[in-house]
Design a protein that fits this description.
Elements lengths: L1 H18 L2 E4 L11 E8 H22 L3 H23 L21 E7 L4 E5 L6 H4 L11 E3 L7 E3 L29 E4 L3 E9 L6 E11 L4 E12 L8 E13 L3 E16 L26 E22 L9 E22 L15 E21 L5 E17 L12 E16 L3 E13 L5 E11 L6 E12 L3 H4 E3 L4 E3 L10 E12 L4 E11 L2 E3 L5 E3 L4 E14 L2 E12 L10 E14 L3 E12 L2 E7 L4 E9 L4 E10 L2 E8 L13 E3 L2 E2 L4 E11 L1
Antiparallel strand pairs: 1-2, 2-4, 3-4, 3-7, 5-6, 8-9, 8-37, 9-10, 10-11, 11-12, 12-13, 13-14, 14-15, 15-16, 16-17, 17-18, 18-19, 19-20, 20-23, 21-22, 23-24, 24-27, 25-26, 27-28, 28-29, 29-30, 30-33, 31-32, 33-34, 34-37, 35-36
Helix pairs in contact: 1-2, 1-3, 2-3
Length: 716
């Protein structure tokens, strides 16, 4: 009977091996909250089951030799039969392409139906992402408030934003003018791909009850797998906000379509992204004190600009694909999990940006200088970015210390267009800049206790020659308590030539020319250090961040870019602490940060977000409800103004902040539907504070309003 059982189990393992495709592999790991887990896509679930089945066979054989009794044989046979019983249904069912489990036998009842990941395009690895299914994720409609404590923005949803947390601000400087919209936009770095066992659809919609100043948001996501390895999906976000003040409407649309193939030897991830913003520009309120007048309708308040408009577009196509091949067999063992593998891959990205600003007959005091026309403005500029990467990665399929080593070569090409008065004497032409760079990465891990990764990139020739980027992450975990204690350390060194738009810019209102060379003296230098302590059992996350920034570039009070002569030190401490007392939940996020040069970079000393609610299960496993208040606050600081022409935030000496903002909400989960109602800015007019409720200088946040929303998920 024992021989028959071995033969049956071996056939079951082969059946699984043949019926499953390649999937992503990650070390067994308890993920730190707010950080993605790293996984790769080159191990079969069937391979894992075959390997685990071999372990079971070895254990059974050892048991047979050590205990040559009828009871021992029956125990071994029973174990093997149970293994086969589990393997057979797995072989027949469509499964997720997931990392292998730690246990011998997969518990299919606990296997998730869907998982999401983003791409690390340099090595074709993927970063596992958590899908936020909490009720809070539904009624917090401002994307920059879901992960941060607050932001400078123009008051309504979809408008330009700048995070309070300096370390969360966008550092992508290819096209400066897209930075204020990064909280809303898809990029190849943050666009999520999905793999699911059943078709998955998410519908989300929220809107305000004030029709004349309606603000609405629509999100649609659909994804499904054609086979275990091949999946596709499309995600669309649409924000329409009319605004409560004159000429404040904005339309913000984002589309991401993707196809992913995670095969045994070949993998590919490709996608198309389209982001666009169309909005009116009012330049802010003509008189800030009017927000305290309870009898005054916001729509009647005077604004600074009457005919200005902005239009921004971004279009991206990206592709990362690779082929795997064996390099070396370890020892005499012919099992597949003892192979050292090679991976040869290619990554491509093409991104186009454009910006158009128009106005006419504006107040000359708002824009004191007119270089081209005193009565009408039409400023347009654009940039196209092409990048090709070729890489080779070496990795043992089942290593416990060394995980992978990768290196490659890349080429970047920038083509920019911007009108310059010199073109009156020559043909219209674009500027083309090329760079060639080398890069390498390495990673190692040991079970769930240790994870180390590093990445370095250096530009060898071309426009940005001498630029260097170095990043390394170290994670240490111990398990004296349930879910463990985790320490994550990060180091980042960045030496780069300033963006081409920091060097030269020409429009009707602004012109500047700076000759930044490739010399070390002219390069921006930033050194970042970060340490995070996470204790999931107590819901505690504490993060210390430090940055030494030399040659920092900012927009001053004259709305022109300026560069600091001395380095700036930025220090931040963030603490996330949640706890529960009976039905009462208390969630806190605190951010303390300071800058050594407030004249160039001023930050609120304290920013805080508190979420306090009662959660109760009205009908067990059917209906759950939350009733509570969401509070936001930051200490006064020198606020940022916003210039519509260049589309950038600039420094001012005017104070903002010091205002406690309260939203009251009721959220429910009924099976897969999540409706909510929120009374936004419920405390308006309850008290006056010196700097009012301005989100940026001259730009107040919305007045109190009811907002209703619904999120609905469909599996199948």
């Amino acid at each position: 009977m024992f021989k028959v059982s071995i033969f049956t189990c071996f056939l079951g393992g082969l059946l699984v091996l043949c019926s499953t495709g390649a999937h992503a592999q990650q070390p067994p790991d308890s993920s730190i909250e707010h950080h993605s887990s790293r996984i790769t896509n080159d191990t079969l679930a069937g391979d894992t089951l075959l390997h685990d089945t071999a372990i079971v066979l070895q254990n059974a054989d050892t048991l047979r030799q050590a205990h040559n009794t009828t009871a021992a044989l029956q125990s071994a046979d029973s174990l093997l039969l149970d293994t086969v019983a589990v393997l057979k249904p797995i072989a027949k069912k469509r499964r997720l392409v997931l990392p292998p489990p730690d246990t011998v036998i997969i518990d299919t009842a606990k296997t998730p139906r869907i998982f999401a990941f983003t791409l690390q395009r340099s090595t074709n690895d993927v970063l596992r992402c958590d899908i936020d299914t909490t009720l809070r994720a539904m009624y917090i409609d401002y994307p920059f408030l879901r992960q941060d404590v607050g932001a400078n923005f123009l008051g309504n949803l979809g408008s330009p934003a700048l995070a309070y947390d300096y370390f969360l601000r966008s550092t992508r400087e290819d096209f400066l003018f897209v930075q204020p919209y990064t909280p809303y936009f898809f990029t190849p770095d943050n666009a999520m791909h999905y793999n699911t066992t059943t078709p998955y659809t998410l519908l989300y919609y929220d809107w305000t009850l004030r029709r004349r100043t309606e603000e609405s948001q629509l999100r649609v996501l659909h994804t499904q797998s054609i086979t275990n390895e091949l999946s596709f999906g499309v995600e669309f976000n649409n924000i329409n906000a009319k605004g409560i003040y004159q000429r404040q409407s904005v339309s913000n649309k984002s589309l991401h379509a993707f196809v992913s193939y995670l095969g045994k030897y070949y993998s590919a991830n490709l996608g198309y992204i389209n982001n666009s913003v169309k909005g009116q520009e009012n330049g802010g309120l003509a008189g800030d004190s009017v927000i305290y007048d309870q009898d005054l309708e916001p729509i009647t308040v005077g604004v600074r600009l009457q005919r200005a408009r902005n239009q921004l577009k971004q279009s991206t196509f990206y592709l990362t694909h690779s082929i795997d091949f064996p390099l070396l067999y370890l020892g005499n063992d012919s099992l597949i999990f003892n192979i050292i593998k090679g991976r040869l891959g290619h990554s491509f990205e093409s991104t186009s940006y454009s910006k158009l600003y128009t106005d006419e007959n504006e107040d000359p005091t708002f824009y004191p200088t007119h270089y081209l026309n005193n009565s009408k403005t039409r400023d347009s500029l654009g940039l196209r970015r092409l990048e090709n990467r070729f890489f080779l990665q070496i990795r043992p399929l089942r290593a416990y210390i060394f995980e992978s080593l990768a290196g490659g070569i890349g080429f970047r090409k920038f083509t920019s267009y911007m009108f310059d008065p010199a073109m009156y004497l020559s043909d219209l032409q674009s500027q083309k800049l090329n760079s060639t760079f080398l890069y390498a990465s390495a990673s190692a891990w040991y079970k769930q206790y240790f994870l180390l990764s590093a990445y370095v990139e250096t530009v060898m020739a071309g426009y940005a020659a001498g630029d260097v980027t170095f990043k390394t992450d170290l994670k240490l975990s111990a398990y004296p308590i349930r879910q463990g204690i985790h320490l994550l350390a990060k180091l980042e060194i960045d030496l780069r030539r300033p963006s081409i738009f920091y060097q030269n810019y020409s429009s009707n209102y602004y012109q500047w020319h700076h000759d930044y060379t490739n010399s070390l003296e002219d390069k921006i230098k930033e050194y970042k250090l970060e340490g995070t302590l996470s204790i999931p059992y107590t819901q505690t996350v504490a993060t210390f961040k430090y940055s030494l920034y030399d040659k920092y570039i900012y927009f001053g009070e004259d709305h022109l870019p300026a560069q600091t002569a001395d380095p700036i030190n930025i220090v931040a401490l963030r603490i996330d602490q949640n706890f529960k007392l009976w039905y009462f939940h208390f969630n806190h996020r605190f951010l303390l940060q300071t800058s050594s040069m407030p004249s160039a970079l001023d930050l609120p000393l304290l920013s805080a977000n508190g979420n306090y609610y009662i959660e109760y299960e009205i009908v067990k496993n059917v209906l759950r409800a939350q009733l509570g208040v969401d509070a936001q606050y930051c200490t006064p600081y020198n606020g940022y103004g916003y210039d519509p022409s260049i589309g950038m935030f600039y420094n001012t000496p005017q104070k903002v902040g010091g205002y406690l903002w309260l939203d009251v909400f009721l959220a429910m989960r009924w099976k897969s539907a999540t409706p909510f109602i929120k009374y936004e800015h419920a405390n308006q007019f309850l008290w006056e504070q010196p700097h009012g409720y301005f989100a940026a200088v001259h730009y107040p946040r919305n007045a109190r309003v009811f907002k209703i929303g619904l999120s609905w998920k469909f599996f199948d």
